[in-house]
Fold this sequence. Notes:
- With about 250 residues, this protein is an all-alpha fold.
- It has one domain (about 30-245).
- The chain is about 85% helix and about 0% strand.
- It has helices spanning about 1-25, 35-70, 80-115, 120-125, 130-170, 175-185, 185-215, 220-250.
- Helix 1 (about 1-25) crosses helix 5 (about 130-170) and helix 3 (about 80-115) runs antiparallel to helix 8 (about 220-250).
Amino acid sequence: MAQALIQPIITLGQLGGFGGRVLRSFVAGRWSGQEFMAQAATVASRCFLPVVLTIGPFGAVIGVQGMVILDLFSAHRLLSSLLSIFMIRELGPVLAAVLVAAQAGSSFAAELGAMRIKEEIDATAVMAVDPIGWHVVPRVLAMALVVPLLTTVANAFGVLGGYAVAVGLYGQSHGVFVAHLAENIGVYDLVASAFKGLVYGLLVGLIATWKGYNASGGAEGVGRAVNDTVVASVMFILVFNYLLSSLLFGSSS
Length: 253
């Protein structure tokens, strides 16, 4: 019982220690910029389509349900206000990060886990090359770069999905939709949304590489690392989303 209560604290400490090693390797410059760009391109190519195909319908659903709710108050013109707050401040960053965790985060865990099982990471260390700097830092940086970009894309397609419903299906004026959208969303909201994506990208990158880097137990261990990566990433994203929303938007109401 006591071990079960202490284990989450131990896990956080281990993750924090791993993050410290990653930071030291990054600051020392023991990482490849070319590998970083290659990993970033891979993450972007793998995750762009899932993000677009998922977020667009979410925006459309918010448009449909929002119209039903706002119809009770004869306030259809406020749909873009509702959509912008939900999508840009909350759903865009969260859903983009969750999809990246499921697609690219699991891939990173599997790749590093396979390297660990095949002793490729140990071989890197034997050749006097920092394995954290060579294998981990580029992947974490790739996540930190790509997730904010995909968050911006998610926001755009989410709003576009709501626009299609409001203007295309319900006949709302284009000018009214855009005017209320611009009234409620400014540069601060867009930057804060991208910042959320940056934090989530770092979290997913650290969790995925940590799980993969420390995998053990053969193929079963690699599968467990992949599963743990997705579960832990989603949990951390949701917890940090509350904290960041409170910090960034809590005093704006």
